[in-house]
Write a structure and sequence with these properties.
Distance between the termini of chain B: 7 Å
Order of helices and strands of chain A: HHHHHHHHHHHHHH
Shape of chain B: elongated
Order of helices and strands of chain B: HHHHHHHHHHH
Strand content of chain B: under 5%
Number of helices of chain A: 14
Oligomer: heterodimer
Largest sheet of chain A: none
CATH class of chain B: Mainly Alpha
Number of strands of chain B: 0
Number of domains of chain B: 1
Radius of gyration of chain B: 23 Å
Number of helices of chain B: 11
Structural class of chain B: mainly alpha
Helix content of chain A: over 70%
Strand content of chain A: under 5%
Distance between the termini of chain A: 11 Å
Helix content of chain B: 55-70%
CATH architecture of chain B: Orthogonal Bundle
Largest interface: A-B, 67 and 57 residues
Number of strands of chain A: 0
Largest sheet of chain B: none
């Protein structure tokens, strides 16, 4: 058990380093000289060279990477080109807002998806199963940014029930919840579809196994059979829930843009607009780190739910 | 069953729904060839057939846009801004610059389909080569390729696409590059695991024992059994690719104005929902229908191509 945990922890390190290389490379992917972009147009060659030296851009790339990585490890993500504020501060505030949305939409999708998926498996071929299949297909096919716009059109513009934009700074908890409602629903659609589908197929897999037949043959009540099936499908359900939560954090960019929700996605969108590469890098690095660590936690928790994994 | 397991049930991907109860074999007495069985199953799957029909209509209308579109997609008229659906002369209304929506949707489909399909095709080609190579050669080559691909799994797909596009800047070529990078690692994983699985089967050992070289084994025995699952997996990625391609344009990172593209149209019309609630929703509806069609089709294809005992 502990060797497995240790190995899994060690495996996360190269992944994180790899991700940091990709994020570091983003500066050099950007067209044009990264220094020329921030210097006034009339600066002389000598001035540009001096700035290059000051930022360390005259050193070879591997050295630049290590210096950058060292700073990142100390929590220094550089300064925004647009606002001159430390990137880490902006990212921290935005991340809190994104986490709130990721949690609320995940909870909604988990409850709906697990419930619908299990019911569909036990009512295979009946109308409820057809509804579940439809939810699954629609969920994975719908452009969630469009779903967000539709929600705004219906609930904000036509019915005037819920606010369409922002996060109601200083408006009190009720106002905050009202602002959360529409983005939460828009964000929940994809995981709802995926979870319904995975849970249904996992439960069907278990239902087709011989031990279920044996349970039924010995006269176990339907409800008790249900518990057995849920227990056996749990590891698979657990994995999909963990992964989907991770996707919620990184995948909310488009929905946050639609609702002007002040999270990481909105910050990212702003950075793209202003070609503010340090902010872009900071947000993506933090989100990727979160994603990798979350996957790690899911993997480790899974060994608690399903001890068979360790033996592989 | 062994082959089916490779069909892309990776974490986070939507796995096929295992239908235990579905009639899977034709009632014929004489055994059918594999592809005839597949065709037989498809012919009995109305949802897939309908999806196929809708897809043909979408693709044809995109190809024939220059002839089908009643107006120039970039010519607008200030007096005719945001005309409602069914306005005289403009069946689907006009956009915020008074341009004909039907014409723009037809032309926009060309862009969206190109931007969504190309990355999957590129990823299929590159990913299949890399994955089969890594799987067949094994050893250091495998470690090198697969660990590199793992790095890209540190990012959710949407974030990776936005990261690369955000750094490269807007434009269709950059969208194609960033989306190809999103999908290549996924195809490589599927190709590698399929290859490793097939490589271990007895008929490969038999071919090797009877003196076949690497070339013929790969060509006749390996690819023939591996390409199917890889292709099916790639087909499941098309709908996501279309949603992402349009999403990048929606963020201003994809196709640039004044070109017509569904994501971009959705973005520019977004401000107009207070004036006209229906017309701004149309480009998104087009993305939705197209992506759903591809999903239903690839689901049906996967069911039909499944190898059942």
């Amino acid at each position: 058990m502990w060797t497995y945990v240790g190995r899994r922890l060690l495996l996360a390190i190269p992944t994180l380093l790899g991700a940091s290389i990709i994020v570091f490379a983003m500066v050099h992917l950007a067209p044009g000289d990264p220094i020329a972009a921030v210097m006034p147009a009339e600066s002389s060659k000598a001035e540009i060279e001096a700035t290059k030296r000051a930022y360390g851009f005259d050193k070879p790339l591997p050295v630049q990477y290590l210096v950058w990585l060292g700073r990142v490890a100390q929590g220094d993500l550089g300064r925004s080109i647009a606002t001159r504020r430390a990137v880490i501060l902006d990212v921290r505030d935005a991340l809190a807002n994104s986490l709130v949305l990721a949690l609320s939409s995940s909870l909604l999708a988990f409850a709906g998806g697990v419930g619908l998926g299990l019911l569909a498996a036990f009512r295979q071929g009946r109308s409820l199963d057809k509804v579940a299949s439809m939810v699954a297909v629609v969920g994975v096919s719908i452009p969630h940014y469009w779903a967000g716009i539709i929600l705004i059109i219906v609930f904000s513009v036509q019915l005037n029930w819920l606010p369409a934009m922002g996060a109601a700074d200083g408006g009190g908890p009720i106002e905050y919840l009202r602002h959360m409602a529409l983005p939460t629903v828009a964000l929940a659609l994809i995981p709802l579809g995926v979870i319904t589908r995975v849970v249904r197929s996992a439960a069907l897999d278990i239902l087709s196994q011989e031990f279920v037949l044996a349970l039924r043959a010995k006269g176990l009540a339907g409800r008790r059979v249900f518990t057995h099936v849920v227990k056996n499908a749990a590891p698979q359900i657990f994995t999909v829930l963990g992964l989907q939560f991770g996707f919620q954090l990184g995948g909310s960019v488009l929905v946050e843009a639609v609702f002007s929700w002040p999270g990481t996605g909105y910050l990212l969108n702003l950075a793209i607009f202003q070609r503010d590469i340090p902010v872009l890098q900071g947000v993506i690095l933090v989100l990727a780190t979160f994603f990798v660590l979350l996957n790690l936690v899911v993997d480790l928790l899974q060994t608690l739910v399903d001890p068979r994994i360790v033996r592989h | 069953m062994a082959i089916r397991a490779v069909g892309g049930v990776g974490p986070g991907d939507s796995p096929g729904v295992v239908d235990a109860g579905r009639a899977s074999l034709p009632p014929d007495v004489a055994p059918m060839s594999y592809w005839r069985t597949v065709a037989w199953r498809l012919a009995r799957d109305p949802a897939t057939l309908v999806a196929g029909g809708v897809l043909i209509v979408i693709v044809l209308s995109a190809i024939l846009a220059p002839w089908l579109a009643p107006y120039d997609p970039s010519a607008g008229s200030i007096r005719l801004r945001l005309a409602p659906v069914g306005a005289p002369g403009h069946v689907l209304g006009t956009d915020e610059q008074g341009r004909d929506m039907l014409s723009r949707l037809l032309w926009g489909g060309r862009m969206t389909l190109v931007a969504g399909l190309t990355p999957v095709v590129v990823a299929f080609l590159v990913g299949a080569v890399l994955g089969v190579l890594a799987g067949y050669v094994g050893g250091l080559a495998n470690t090198l390729v697969m660990r590199t691909m793992d790095i890209f799994y540190a990012f959710p797909a949407v974030l990776l696409a936005i990261a690369i596009s955000g750094a490269l800047g807007p434009g269709l070529p950059n969208t194609l590059i960033s989306l190809s990078i999103v999908f290549i690692p996924r195809v490589v994983r599927v190709a590698e695991s399929a290859t490793v699985q097939v490589k271990g089967l007895e008929y490969i050992a038999a071919a090797r024992a009877s003196g076949s070289g690497v070339g013929p084994i790969v060509r006749h025995h390996l690819l023939a059994n591996v390409l199917g699952p890889i292709l099916v997996f790639a087909s499941t990625q098309v709908s996501l690719s279309i949603i992402l391609a349009a999403g990048l344009s929606f963020l201003g990172l994809g196709v640039t104005p004044p070109a017509a593209e569904w994501g971009l149209m959705l973005n520019t019309l977004r401000q107009s929902i207070y004036v006209n609630a229906v017309v701004p929703a149309l480009p998104g509806l087009a993305i939705f229908v197209t992506s759903m069609t591809f999903n239903l089709l690839s689901d049906g294809l996967r069911d039909a191509m499944e190898i059942r005992a």
